[in-house]
Amino acid sequence: MDVKLNYIEKGRGDILILLHGNGEDCSYFEHQIDYFSEFCRVIAIDTRGHGKSARGNKPFTIRQFAEDLYGFMCEHDIEKAHILGFSDGGNIALYFALKHSDMINRLVLNGANLNPSGVKARVQLPIVIGYNFVRLFKNKSEEALRNYEMLSLMVNEPDISPEELSAIKNRTLVIAGSNDMIKESHSRLIAESLPEGELIILDGDHFIANKNYTQFNKTVSDFLLR
After folding, report:
1. Rounded CA gap, 111 and 178, in Å?
2. How far from 4 is each of 18, 30, 48, CA to CA, in Å?
3. Pick the CATH number of 7-115+160-225 from 3.20.110.10, 3.40.50.880, 1.10.110.30, 3.40.50.1820
4. CA distance 88 to 119
5. Whole-angstrom Cα distance, residue 58 to residue 56?
6. For the whole prediction, is pTM greater than 0.90?
7. Residue-wise pLDDT tens for the chain (226 aa)?
8. If we measure between CA atoms, which residue out of 33, 159, 120, 48 comes closest to residue 84?
9. What three-state secondary structure class fits 138?
10. Distance from the first to the final alpha carbon of the chain
11. Distance between CA 69 and CA 45 in Å, rounded?
């Protein structure tokens, strides 16, 4: 692996890896790390090019982030872990599960999507417009290139078919907000396409782990400890 991923670790027990969303870092899980560390060894990772993790020279894609996760787990001798991914973190978890499901105990997908059409048009349209604008200036500065790469993740990825999900046999919780930027029908499609998938909708928007953390944490812990 060409970069060392920054991470926060706390607690003991079964390992729970937390994967944040686009443009964020592991501090997104400020309301989860202490809570889950009461019964898990929590590892919250900064994705490549996010937080304190370097960008490196490899492709800035969700597939690459999933390979980075594999490299991280091998480097730290983690044979198996629960994985909780939020937004793009959920998409990373899906790509990882498609190749390395044997390294996952239980999977939690919060606000994940299989493709850009899973995002509501009122959210996706401004992202596409912004992407097409910054694409013109991506070579002008490092900041412009960073903005282009971040928006590219949401415009061009992920690209997973519902049929592919049949290969993921892990027990999986698909969790979303009642006013999520991901279409509820899309979250339902993900849950129904997973052999061991279940869907729970909580009050709130895309950021329920941060804004409705009491209910979110209880729902996830009930799933992990069941």
Report:
1. 11
2. 16, 22, 8
3. 3.40.50.1820
4. 12
5. 6
6. yes
7. 799 999 999 999 999 999 999 999 999 999 999 999 999 999 999 999 999 999 999 999 999 999 999 999 999 999 999 999 999 999 999 999 999 999 999 999 999 999 999 999 999 999 999 999 999 999 999 999 999 999 999 999 999 999 999 999 999 999 999 999 999 999 999 999 999 999 999 999 999 999 999 999 999 999 999 9
8. 33
9. coil
10. 35
11. 9
Q: In angstroms, what CA-CA distances link 179 with 15, 75, 105, 184, 206? A: 30, 38, 29, 9, 7
Amino acid at 146: R
CA distances from 193 to 14, 97, 175, 188 (A): 27, 14, 14, 8
Distance separating alpha carbons of residues 13 and 119, to the nearest angstrom? 36
> What is the C-alpha to C-alpha distance for residues 72 and 45, in angstroms, rounded to an integer?
9
The answer to whether 196 and 171 have CB atoms below 8 angstroms apart is yes
Q: Which amino acid is at 16?
A: L
Handedness of CA 152, 108, 176, 54 (dihedral sign): negative
Report residue 55 CA to chain centroid gap: 18
CA distances from 70 to 41, 53, 73, 114 (A): 18, 16, 5, 20
Phi and psi, residue 2, nearest 5°: -85, -5
Q: Where are the domains of the chain?
A: 7-115+160-225, 116-157
